[in-house]
Amino acid sequence: MKTVFTLFLFNLFAAFSFAQPGALDSSFGHDGKVVSQNYTGAAYTSIIQPDGKIVIGGSGTYYKNDVLIGGSLLARYNTDGSLDLNFADSGRGVYILGDTGAYIPVIHAMTLEEDGKILALGSPAQQNGQFGFALMRFNIDGSADKSFGINGMAISEISGGDDVPYDVALLPDGRIIVVGDLDIYGNTLKSFVACYTSDGHLDKNFGNNGIVTIYLSAPIHVKCAAITNDNKIIVSGAYWSYPKNFVFRYNSDGTSDLTFGKEGIAEMQFEKFTTNTVNDMAISDDQKIAITGVLYLKSGKATIVVSRFTQDGKPDSSFGTQGYVYTAYNDGNSNANALAIQKNNKIIATGYFNSNGNTLFTIIRYNEAGTMDSSFGINGIQNTNFFGDDISYSINIQKDGKIISAGYSEVENPEFQDIVDIARYNGDLTQKQILIAKIRHWIQHHNGFIWDANNNISSYVVQRSYDGIHFSSIAKINANNNSNYTYQDPSPLSGSNYYRLQTTSINGSINYSNVLAVSNNNIKISPNPATNSLQIQGLPSNQKTKITIVDFNGYTKMQTVVNNTSYNLNIASLKAGNYLLKIEMNDDVITKQFVKE
User: Fold this and answer.
1) 259 CB neighbour count, 10 Å cutoff
2) Contact, 192 vs 200, CB < 8 A?
């Protein structure tokens, strides 16, 4: 059989067609997914530090010296998905927020200060007889910053009832904004905006001694806070029982910005729906305000909704219909808990999709105008299964455009417990990135390739794959003074081999080279893209050949066995998207990628 060598050279690292936007990133954890192993818990929020490390916050438990400890949780992961053992207590730490009785304290939201310290918002909390919610500040290594509040924690008790904080944001001057609801079980119908100094005390010059109270004509939730590029404070939420959301804008001293919306408030009504919730908000570079949550149809079905306001507080008529879009999954309910905006103004929402008792991470991406982005996942949607009861609560976009989603699963092992889940997805193929290393060419007869040195690299790891998706490390080469490097594979796989380099820079960041594909076959497929049928030619004669189509989540979509040298495969039933054609003949496994239109 003829051997064919193909070199894919792009101006992007790992920019090959199988790295479809929205597909799980196989270089992260195990096939793109990470679950907590030396602790149990749930992730409700996450941030990405400047070095690319991922910090999750929520609640958790683990054993220390044979004693089970639990409380609000922080954990940090390296860029490859491994737990960072240099953070907190061997990668994770729980923080007791005083005597909270039967209530388990939870970290609801986090943000990063300019110096890299971590601000976390949690509840319930109690300190020196004061019961309420807590602002906490941690050093970069996860230890408490004792200079903040009292030993790293500032407790607030605003209403004297059950105050629930939801979000935290940071003003450029270092002051801290917290939003939430007041006395949620007392039906006071009020919410709040609180402002703290950089050392953890209420800012007496903001609002009424540091507090602005919000109340409208009907019960409301205030869930989100963000800061504009001119230091205005944006606060969003929804009515409890009406299908309407709202946005307030405040000046940095807590006074209403009357130039926004109608006397400082903007509202959006959702027709033909019963109720809605707001769960997250983000501001784009052009200062438009995007909000996500849930809309409930009159049938009771839950759908993901994204709405957008203009900078001056009007529903953005250029987005969807009357400023909003909703996505109803055909066979189940969906809920969005978090939202992020890419540099190209595409909007990504994440949460969960539930159908027939099975709950999955879901991510959906919209174009700037609110249409579904069909280039992402499968027709704009990517669902991910961990254990079958999986909920995503946060989303972040890395500098390289890859997407981090974090949440938790409830599993029975042998009793019910929560397991932290983190997934990383490929970003846009058109995302401009630095090519750290480029494989130059294949060395025939030596099963090897060559690449040029880069002075910023400390080590190279050669990775190989049988399908271009699942890569394994097969060799590590430490950088030296060579001008170029060569690697020869002593035992290449039968059939197709895909090679790439994983590079580690001198500052610890990890990147990837282009991909070298080596195929030992004469098999051709056409047309590509295909609509209803796929013609496969060059199959071996006088033997049975197994043909399998899998999607980019690894799920088998179609399978057949043929014994002809050519075969016309009917693919009309496949949804539009990217697929792998796997051809198994004797000991060889050949993979081909194609697009179904």
Assistant:
1) 12
2) no
Tokens of residue 137, six digits: 């500040």
Distances (CA, A) of 293 to 177, 187, 352, 373: 21, 22, 11, 19
Q: Tokens representing 212? A: 């602005």
Please calculate the CA angle 17-19-21 and round it to the nearest 5 degrees: 105
Between 194 and 127, the more confident residue is: 194
DSSP secondary structure, 219-231, as one string: -EEEEEEEE-TTS
Give strand pairing partners of 208. 211
What residues form DSSP beta bridges with 137?
119
CA pair distance 16, 18, nearest whole angstrom: 6
Tell me the residue range of the domain where 457 lies.
435-518
- Mean pLDDT of all residues in 13-19: 38
Same domain for 525 and 514?
A: no
Q: Is the peptide bond before 219 cis (omega within 30 degrees of 0)?
A: no
Phi/psi for 504 (5° steps) reads -115, 120
Higher pLDDT, 444 or 58: 58
Task: Give the torsion through C-alpha atoms of 564, 568, 572, 575, to 10 deg.
Answer: 70
- Two structure tokens written together for 21: 């936007």
Looking at residue 479, which CATH number applies to its domain?
A: 2.60.40.10
Looking up tokens 């903040």, which residue turns up? 148
Question: Are 149 and 135 spatial neighbours (Cβ–Cβ below 8 Å)?
Answer: yes
Examine the domain organization and report whether 514 and 527 are in the same domain: no
The CATH number of the domain where 570 resides is what?
Answer: 2.60.40.3080
Alpha carbon distance 386, 512 (integer Å) = 26
pTM: 0.71
Task: Determine the Cα–Cα distance for residues 204 and 350; give it in Å rounded to an integer.
Answer: 37
Q: What are phi and psi of 288, to 5 degrees?
A: -80, 150
pLDDT in tens, 479-490: 888 888 888 888
Ramachandran quadrant class, 534 (left: phi over 0; alpha: psi -120 to 50; beta: rest) = beta
Q: What is the pLDDT of residue 70?
A: 87
Q: How much is the mean pLDDT over the chain? A: 86
Residue 530 and residue 478 share a domain: no
Beta carbons of 150 and 142 less than 8 angstroms apart:
no
Report the distance separating Cα 400 and Cα 549, nearest Å.
30
Interatomic CA distance for residues 428 and 421, integer angstroms: 23
E-state strands within 284-415:
289-297, 302-309, 324-327, 333-341, 347-355, 358-366, 381-384, 390-397, 403-412
- The arrangement of strands across the sheet holding 524-526 comes to 524-526, 533-537, 566-570
Q: Domain for residue 539, yes or no?
A: yes
Are 232 and 212 within 8 A, CB to CB? no
Name the domain count of the chain. 2
On whether residue 179 sits in a domain, the answer given is no
Element (H, E) at 311: none
The whole-angstrom separation of Cα 259 and Cα 589 is 65
The CA distances from residue 32 to 40, 292, 435, 504, in Å, are 20, 25, 21, 19
